[in-house]
Write a structure and sequence with these properties.
Number of helices: 2
CATH superfamily of one domain: YVTN repeat-like/Quinoprotein amine dehydrogenase
Number of strands: 28
Oligomer: single chain
Radius of gyration: 22 Å
Strand order of the largest sheet: 1-28-27-26
Strand content: over 45%
Helix content: under 10%
Distance between the termini: 40 Å
Length: about 350
């Protein structure tokens, strides 16, 4: 090409240059996920939610009557917060000092020192605290009580309960926007609610169209979108300002956890029934599922580590399901002792 031809098509050249510059981001978003590692932790008992602490390279796993703490750089267990009753969730303060455990069977929130893993306080909550979040704008901890259908609000500075807020039904996973607003799925009403942490008031109830029994919840703070995972293999995408339904993309079976990757605009659903991780492209029209990664049966909860761009899931092996009885018509299969693992997913 002559020098005249080179300058005769500046628009095409610019378009080519922009395409080359944008290619790495597009490739990263579209590159498929895979299981990179499996950390065998062992131990007995069931599990529920887990929480990544990216700056500290730690992973907190609720595991029966304790919370296991794993180094995410080595995959090794570094300690546990033990002697609890039945753990469900972990919240972390924004100062890197304390963590908060919802001890469901103990009807309490347990506060621990993140440096030593020592328990420093036990605070009575409602009945069956499950989801738990730290709200940074008000420096409060919110425990969502699944059996008493309310939320216990705790002042993080004093470790005292400052409010108990009645809820319209059974609360599931909750999420904060970082500015004083909290969202929570109401499982038995098929809705998501909005709470104001400055006033301790319920400010909105929004039905989740096409969603049954919403559980896991993720939040796109930049785009103002909520992602609720539901039974019936659906994810409900909701406008966080108006409550308007935006989409209901297909996901896997029996989901419980959700996650959000802000860098690549991807939403995740961990599906314990199908043993898959569904990846939703939230930047594309229609919110298509771009991957349904096989994980392992029972891997129903997850957490996303934004610093490492890793997804962590937990599960175990199961024995044969017992025969149904009149007292227990839908028995669960037993967990094989010592089979508890963390699945590390990345690209």
């Amino acid at each position: 090409m002559s020098i005249f031809g080179l300058f005769a098509r500046p628009i095409a050249g610019a378009a080519l240059l922009c395409g080359l510059l944008s290619a790495p981001a597009q490739t990263a978003a579209q590159q498929p996920y895979k299981i990179l590692n499996t950390w065998k932790l062992g131990g007995d008992g069931g599990w529920d939610d887990l929480r990544a602490d990216p700056p500290a390279h730690r992973l907190y796993l609720t595991h029966g009557t304790r919370v296991d703490v794993v180094d995410t750089q080595t995959g090794k267990l570094v300690g546990s917060i033990a002697d609890l009753h039945g753990t469900h969730g972990v919240a972390l303060d924004d100062a890197g000092k304390f963590g908060y455990i919802s001890d469901g069977r103990g009807n309490a929130v347990v506060v621990f020192d993140r440096a030593t893993l020592a328990t420093v306080a036990t605070i009575p909550a409602g009945t069956g605290p499950d989801a738990i979040v730290f709200e940074p704008a008000t420096q409060t901890v919110w425990a969502f009580n699944g059996r008493s259908n309310d939320a216990t609000v705790i002042d993080a500075a004093t470790c005292k309960v400052v409010a108990t807020i009645p809820l319209p039904g059974k609360p599931e996973f909750a999420i904060v926007d970082g500015k004083g607003t909290i969202f929570d799925n109401i499982e038995d009403k098929n809705e998501v609610i909005r709470l104001d942490a400055h006033t301790n008031k319920l400010t909105a109830e929004w039905p989740l169209t096409g969603c049954e029994s919403p559980s896991g919840l993720a939040f796109d703070s930049a785009g103002g979108r909520l992602f609720s995972v539901c039974d019936g293999k659906k994810m409900a995408v909701t406008d966080a300002s108006t409550g308007k339904s935006l989409a209901t993309p297909a996901i896997g079976d029996s989901p419980d956890g959700a996650g959000w990757d802000a860098a690549h605009k991807l939403a995740f659903s961990s599906n314990g029934g199908s043993g898959t991780l569904t990846v939703i492209d939230a930047a594309a029209p229609g919110y298509p599922a771009i991957e349904d990664l096989p994980t392992q049966r029972g891997a129903r909860t997850m957490t996303y580590d934004s610093a490492a761009d890793r997804i962590y899931l937990v599960t175990a092996e199961f024995g044969p399901r017992p025969a149904p009885t009149a007292d227990n018509p839908h028995p669960r299969p037993p967990i094989v002792p010592g089979s508890f693992v963390v699945l590390v997913v990345g690209r």
